[in-house]
Write a structure and sequence with these properties.
Radius of gyration: 23 Å
Strand content: 5-15%
Number of domains: 2
Shape: elongated
Helix content: 55-70%
Number of strands: 7
Distance between the termini: 44 Å
Largest sheet: 7 strands, mixed
Strand order of the largest sheet: 2-4-3-1-5-6-7
């Protein structure tokens, strides 16, 4: 304990800045992996590392050697198993300082979504498309089927095609990718919401009440386009209005 206070007493501004930078890096890394399978593996590795340290302190040399070898091998295995997640994380890191470079990618995402909504509105295809923002949707993603694919109008049409396994439920878009489909959303309990609205609209509003996600809804009965955001439902939107909203959304990221 005295050693800790002694170290703190001799710290200067440079040391404090060094610690803050390292803490910030670890925080950002945690935020990047918090909604991925890699987080569970990281938790397991931390437990093994702590166990290795305790074994060495107690004097269990054989157990310490065994655990040390295990977590080193685990790190190598994790790199192999979680290559998609690592690529996604590296892509996020690359996007950070160079947002303008990736503007074309975001424009393409908006175009694919609006093209899809246009087709669905014309065909009266019931649709729920969730665009995740800062609040993670791991609990919602777990209710569906993981896809982790690039966003395309063709793929979205295939997912929501009547009769397919994944058509019932919501698609989750995370970091410009379709991360999951057939996901269940929480229903709103707002008694003031029009009784004319069906389950899709109530699910869209329900998710927007508990997160900062933006949810696009196409009515199966009327083909009208709506957007749920911050617990509010914007109904009967024009396709051009939806496109402008999405561009503003992605430019703000």
């Amino acid at each position: 304990m005295y050693k800790i206070f002694d170290i703190l007493a001799h710290m200067n501004l440079l040391d404090m800045g060094d610690i803050l930078i390292v803490a910030y890096i670890f925080y950002k890394l945690f935020m990047l992996i918090k909604d991925t399978r890699a987080l569970q593996v990281l938790k397991g590795l931390i437990v093994i590392i702590i166990g290795t340290f305790l074994a060495r302190v107690i004097g269990f040399e054989t157990l310490s050697w065994l655990l040390k070898g295990f977590w080193v091998a685990g790190l190598v295995a994790a790199v192999v198993v979680f290559q998609p997640e690592l690529r996604s994380i590296l892509a996020k890191i690359g996007r950070g300082p160079f947002k303008g470079i990736f503007l074309k990618e975001r424009i393409k995402v908006v175009e694919e979504i609006t093209r899809t909504v246009k087709v669905f509105a014309k065909r009266h295809t019931g649709t729920l498309i969730v665009i995740q923002q800062k609040v993670g949707l791991g609990n919602v993603i777990e209710t569906g089927t993981i896809i982790d694919s690039e966003i395309s109008c063709d793929l979205l049409q295939t997912i929501f095609m009547s009769g397919t396994v994944l058509h019932d439920g919501a698609v989750i878009i995370q970091n410009n990718r379709i991360i999951a489909a057939s996901c269940l959303l929480p229903l709103t309990v707002d008694a003031d919401l029009s009784r004319v609205l069906g389950t899709r609209h109530r699910a869209a509003v329900g998710l927007s009440e508990v997160s900062d996600a933006v949810v696009i809804v196409v009515s199966e009965e009327t083909g009208t386009i709506s957007v749920a955001k911050d617990g509010k439902l914007l109904r009967d939107l024009e396709l051009t209005t939806l496109g402008k909203m999405l561009m503003e959304l992605y430019q703000a990221k």
